[in-house]
Amino acid sequence: MSWAIKQKCKEILSREDGYVKKLWGNSLNICLAYPNRYRTGMDSLGFQTVYSILNQHPSVLCERVFLPDPGDEGFFSPGPLSLFSLESQRPLRDFDIIAFSISFENDYPNILKILDMARINLLSHERNESDPIIIGGGICITMNPEPLADFFDLFLIGEAEEILPEFLSNLLRTRKAKETRKDNLLRLQKDVPGAYVPALYNVTYRADGPIEKMVPVDPSLPRKIRKQWARDIQAFSTETVISSPDTDFGTMFLTEVSRGCSRGCRFCAAGYLYRPSRFRKRENLEKSIRRGLETGGKIGLLGTAVSDHPELIDICRYILSRQGKIGAGSFRLDQLTSPLLELLKEGGIETLAMAPEAGSQRLRDLIRKGIQDGDISRGAINLLENGFFHVRLYFMIGLPTETAEDIEAIIELIKHLAQLSLPTTGPREKRFKRITVSINQFIPKAGTPFQWYPLENIQTIKKKTQKITGSFRGQGNIKILADPPKRNYLQSLLATGDRRVGKILLALHFQRGAWSKALKESPFPPDFFVYRHRETTEILPWDFINTGVPKTLLIKEFQAAQEFSTEKNC
Q: Which residues, listed in sequence order, are joined to residue 228 by a DSSP beta bridge?
């Protein structure tokens, strides 16, 4: 069976274009891990970027590993095989470092699965000199690494392009000096900006639950870890490195056009964590687009604020001038101009996604969305006029101060768009043929003005979702999608918890994914992290991270949101 699993890896590699295969020798050997399936991991531009940076270093060998497919997991845990890398099929224990790229909180349990399948001790304090160093990075780590603190030797906080070169230089120096594991981690904590070794920081708690203090074990260590960010994104490209037909994006070539956002939506982690707003110049993007068109015909434009790019129309025209197709995510409703829509239509886009976020103007003002009712109507009319008859809408429920009237406003807005029509010279009016509505629960995120709000109760969210879904039952052209509220509870727990949540993750692993049992085993009530309204004066688990956004600004925005509050409740 070992032969069959390894043959499967070779078949995956045979369908890839762009992967790197280096010879094993005296290099620093790193296995880059994505805590989910191959199909999901290879769609992550951040994961591919780290892979490229690591393999560009002449003294580094980087290979990949993913969570095995469901049918293959049994061969590794508790099966006879030790989890191995994709490129060379070497056991993960043979690598010097296992580096996790972490984008979603709900992937945290998979991290423990991968370590277990690799026969590596789950807890960092139980590892010895023969074990790989386990490091983590990605937006989840930059927001709040604390729920994972017990399992990782080191975190890298910030953007990979800025932090990885310094980290590799320091690591290679300590490797030549043949330092012990403990001395190596201490030196990295002292010398690498953005490095965070959780074992070098002690956390104590107040009797009523919140954090009392967090201090380094050595006074010479920094009390705050400064997030690293790339000041000049013109100096590099962030684009597809490996293409494969075995992913959701397939052979679409992805290129990042922007990073950060200046809009300031109060709930948005990406908008605050990737500040300041940065746009790549058109001439740099054109080089990336040309590389993409050599391998495929479709260019996916990615970024926190793609529709705000000042040269977006010219970028689209350039893609079309070279017979390319265009792929893009959601667009701001107030940016849907006819010239842009004409180009997107010509570029092959059939369904456009828009995010009103809330049905009522009051809630859109509260979250600082910056979109008015008129923007929504004008955007929808522009879509119909330019031949877009399929639309996807994103709404949030469970927002702070949300009332029954706000839920009704979502329903009325969907009905308004479904009934919207434009007269034509033909026998039929122009209407939306399909409206897909994605209902997402508001989940507080670290580093945003809404980090002090609690998650709304599961039962309340169920009723709100049922209200919206029931309003469109039997209407075939309107499809309502929503995540299970329990999943949102778990995401909130992992997003806003502290080190004590690590014990829940460990229990979950030993209970083989049974969340209900793991939560019951928790020595501290999970609801404390999920349903509690935090005080702006308390120490939050992630306060030791200097994101570059002053906490005073977050408090100011949080307090400004209170102006839109109401005493009515659903």
A: 158
